[in-house]
Amino acid sequence: EVAIGVRQWLTPQLEVGGEIGHVSIKEEDEKVFGSVTGRFHATELFSIGAQFRFNEIYNDQLVLSTRFKF
What we know:
The chain is mostly beta strands. The chain has no helices and five strands.
């Protein structure tokens, strides 16, 4: 698996990102994957995010996440 991605702060509370990559399990089974991510930082201790993953291996996925800092 090889991937490259970027993350960027749009505002002090909003972070966006994306990645694209390539998976090669067998020579005849090469797949491309990628994702688009958004994360809202409500406070310094809490954030909530969503990520849309598109890939040819596991089909498309929507991932919701939270992050707590303690």
